[in-house]
Amino acid sequence: DETIVTVIGGLVKVFRAFFVLLSSLPNSIFINKWISLLNVITSYTINSSKEVALCTLSAIQDLLTALCSNESVPKNLWEETWKAWECIVITTSKHPEIPQRTLQLM
Fold it and tell me: What DSSP line would sit under 52-83, residue for residue?
């Protein structure tokens, strides 16, 4: 689980650090890579421990922050990101090992 948390954190840092450069790629390439990242994060949320689930919740928050910094984000990118966010929140809120108070503090 520690490795998964480190990998997810690293992926998100790379996307955030190079967001301007990545978002300047042709839309089809950037959107495909962004959706792939969302799928990885969502997959780990569904299939992992509470530590990983909380890490993915934090990761998606970081990605949303990156999106907010860009004024020309395609609508379908927002929609895909919010779908992933909803999936992560729903999955995390049902995780038996995560106290509801922890989720409220995030």
Answer: HHHHHHHHHHHHHHHHHT-TT--HHHHHHHHH
**pLDDT < 70 regions, the chain:** 72, 95-106
The three-state secondary structure class of 99 is: coil
Cα angle at 11 between 104 and 37, to 5 degrees? 80
DSSP three-state, residue 30: helix
> How many whole angstroms separate alpha carbon 35 and alpha carbon 43?
12
User: pTM for the whole thing?
Assistant: 0.73
Are the beta carbons of 3 and 14 closer than 8 angstroms? no
Take residue 98 and report the two structure tokens written for it.
């995560």
Inter-helix orientation angle 50-68/75-94, to 10°: 160
**Which distant-in-sequence residues (6+ apart) come within 8 Å of 100 by Cβ?**
93
Dihedral angle over CA of 33, 13, 94, 96, nearest 10: 130
